[in-house]
Amino acid sequence: MQVDEIRRVVIVGAGTMGQQIAFQCAGHGFEVAMYDLATAALELAGERIDTYAQGLVSDGAIGAELKQSALERISSTADADAAATDADLLVEAVPEDPKLKRRVLAQFDALCPPRAIFTTNTSTLLPSQLASATKRPNRVIALHFHLPVWVSNVADVMPHGGTTPEVTEAVREFARRIGQVPIVLEREHHGYVFNAIYSAMNREAITLAERGVASIEDIDRAWMGVAKAPTGPFGALDLVGIDTAWTITDYWARKLLFSRQLRRNATFLKAYVDRGELGVKTGKGFYTYPDPAFARPGFVEGAG
Ligand SMILES: NC(=O)c1ccc[n+]([C@@H]2O[C@H](COP(=O)([O-])OP(=O)(O)OC[C@H]3O[C@@H](n4cnc5c(N)ncnc54)[C@H](O)[C@@H]3O)[C@@H](O)[C@H]2O)c1
After folding, report:
1. H or E segment at 12?
2. What radius of gyration, in Å, describes the C-alpha atoms of the chain?
3. Under CATH, which number does the domain 3-184 receive?
4. Where are the domains of the chain?
5. Per-residue pLDDT tens digits for 53-64
């Protein structure tokens, strides 16, 4: 499969990432079929994509015409068969659960044309852990985005040992064509490049809060004040989704059995998840939305 043959992209999982990837692909001229389990999830995804698109128009990042044509290129369906029809490239963006991802990839392997390339947006897993769920392991590769996809436009392209070089090349070029800077990894690595660095920072930030060393606001204030960043670690985790952050922390806490602090960090995050405080997507996480304290003038100086 050459990149020129990629026309239709199927997004499996229309959550935080699926929505943004869908709009990014459609905005760069690709036909997009967005699939999720329930019509309600797809309706919510459609509303959120509209809001993102309107925001980009208001900021002057895109014109109203581009917005309109991009939205027209996105179709939504809860019918897996319909979504898979004529797919050239699949983006798997379901929750970070290896069993679920393998199940979904196997399901779509049976439905998509044999030529289709399967990409996973997994945060922590390796494509080699997922590829064998399909009968096309040599066409399975990680293509991992960062939020917000149109601003933090770097995408990790991570093949596993059995991925065909032509597939890696096609996905690298596809990433470029949807406005991403592709970073092609030379070997598999949990957490890719940016995330490997970023998750170490998050782990330390959560540890500071879990141990009661400093408040969530002060931890963010310190980061924002020194790095001159618009958000601190906790403001950023609200955007990522505390459920996603918990899943990742819990995964590593189980894998690295010796890390008692990671287990405590997972418990700290789980309390938010259990209260339904998942971050921006539920209107409350470490901060309250749409007007989080960290975004108010004077927050860094201590007025917030
Ligand atoms: N949130 C981030 O910042 C971020 C960044 C990079 C990568 N990721 C990774 O992307 C993936 C998706 O994360 P997210 O934050 O979008 O999750 P999310 O929970 O916001 O969305 C997941 C979506 O998948 C749907 N889903 C669940 N089971 C499904 C199935 N069997 N078939 C189809 N759809 C199904 C859910 O209904 C939901 O809409 C995860 O692997 C995550 O680790 C997340």
Report:
1. strand 8-12
2. 19
3. 3.40.50.720
4. 3-184, 194-294
5. 999 999 999 999
Distance, CA 14 to ligand 1 centroid (Å)?
Answer: 7
Pocket, ligand 1, Cβ cutoff 6 A: 12-18, 35-37, 41, 93-96, 100, 104, 121-123, 144-145, 147, 240-241, 244
Structure confidence by residue, pLDDT tens digits, 282-304: 999 999 999 999 999 999 998 75
Please, are residues 237 and 279 in contact by the beta-carbon 8 Å criterion? yes
Cα–Cα distances in Å, from 77 out to 34, 44, 86, 87, 248?
6, 13, 14, 14, 28
Domain 194-294 has CATH 1.10.3720.10: no
> In the numeric block, which tokens belong to residue 19?
């929505």
| Contact of 89 with 102, CB cutoff 8 Å | no
- φ, ψ of residue 158 to 5 degrees: the values are -125, 100
From the number of C-beta atoms within 10 Å of its C-beta (0-12, 13-18, 19+), residue 301 rates as: exposed
Residue with tokens 């996603």: 244
Rounded to 5°, the CA angle 294-147-193 comes to: 110
248 C-alpha vs ligand 1 centroid, how far in Å?
Answer: 12
Neighbours of 15 (CB within 10 A): 20
To test the pocket of ligand 1, the residue of 16, 76, 147, 231 to mutate (highest count of ligand atoms within 8 Å of its CB) is: 16
The pLDDT-based confidence of 202 (bands split at 50, 70, 90) is very high
Token pair for 41: 């999830």
Residues whose CB falls within 8 Å of the CB of residue 155, separated by 6 or more in sequence, listed in order: 143, 144, 145, 146, 175, 180, 181, 182, 183
Using DSSP, state whether 34 is helix, strand or coil: strand
